[in-house]
Amino acid sequence: MIFTHLYFFRQYDISDVTADEEEVKRFLPELNQPSARRRRDLVRRTRNDLARWETEKLHIAVTGNSGVGKSSFINAIRGLHPGDAGWAPVDVVEGTMRPTQYNHPVFPNILLWDLPGVGTKNFRRETYMAQVEFERYDFYIIICAGRFTENDLWLAETIHQKGKTFFFVRTKVQQEIDNARRVYAGESVFDENVVLRKMRKNCSDSLPKSRGRELFLIDNYEPQLYDFGKLAMAIIHQSPHKKKEAATFGMCLLTEDVIKAKEEELKKRIWKTALMVAVTEASPIDFLGISSTDEYLLKEAHFYREQFQLTDAHLEKYASAEGKTKQEFVECKQLKSTILSHRAKIPMLLNMLGKSSPKVNFILLPVLTAVTSGAVSFGTAMKFLRVALNVAVEDVRKINRAMKSHTR
């Protein structure tokens, strides 16, 4: 029976909803024997799978000398501004005297650490690793604002020898470009790319040729420019395998590549969420512990809005920056994801989104038909989650385009 289901599973295009065949196999025994206990186990295991990333702690160490922009970087990568809760104070005088933890604004399992620079009288090379608790961190970001020092290079080599990942980051790029623009104010043509190439070469010359580690030029106050987006993707790709999902969902910088990475991870959740809803809908027992399966689907849709910074709080900030009310901003940008905040039945929301009958490949439909009466619920859930994700992705791209045109 399992092999029949898997054969059917292969016949459908699942390119828009990622589902690994081996992963599907793990769920089939419960579907083939649909007792109440089996269904309860299936829902429990699926919920645990979906929430596992929240239990994986990701520790990111940020190190460098005082004044290079570590605190500003920690704020920028978390999407925080002065006055926001958890904002790291920027103090170039006192500097960091001990490892200081900063939590992600939404997900407490993602932690950034501001570490003291190595080579000072309080943090000598021979004791540095023990003082900062080296093994705690998943990877290191080594920051400079000019050229990397001998102490930076020693730290990079030590990290490499101990089998951990690090990134070289050069900050304050916009400041350097503005300085160059003032110097060459009398020139008929000013080429920003020439300045960037000189900065990269000057910084790269201080790095060992054999290291082969990519250098990222960023500005903490202009995270949409320069290499910040590349750095964000490097953090996602280089995170330990079991923590990649946490790194992806925890990334606040929404470049096009990050949007795609988030979209792919969210797609992986769709069939599992729909499966849970179908099993619960077909059973007289409330396995999800909620008032309705519609509520559970709306909770997942809210997670999409949260991931792409489309919640009401985010929209209020965007609107305020343009001198508009939230409603004016939503109408001006023609955003549809706000519909996902309505407490309505799922078919009604699909109609409101203008997607009442999207094409759906029912990849698990025969399995559900054979063991439950929840096939319609499964199909509706799949439709809704696909539409909700597509709408959220469309909206964040609209906002990104508007922000880019506004800054030109």
From TrEMBL:
Name of this protein: IRG-type G domain-containing protein
Residue ranges of every copy of the IRG-type G domain listed in the record: 56-238
GO MF term (any one): hydrolase activity
Keyword Lipid biosynthesis in annotation: no
One cellular-component annotation, GO: membrane
Family the UniProt entry places it in: Belongs to the TRAFAC class dynamin-like GTPase superfamily. IRG family.
Domain of life: Eukaryota
Presence of the UniProt keyword DNA repair in the record: no
Keywords, ordered alphabetically: GTP-binding, Hydrolase, Nucleotide-binding
InterPro entries: G_IRG_dom, Immunity-related_GTPase-like, IRG, P-loop_NTPase
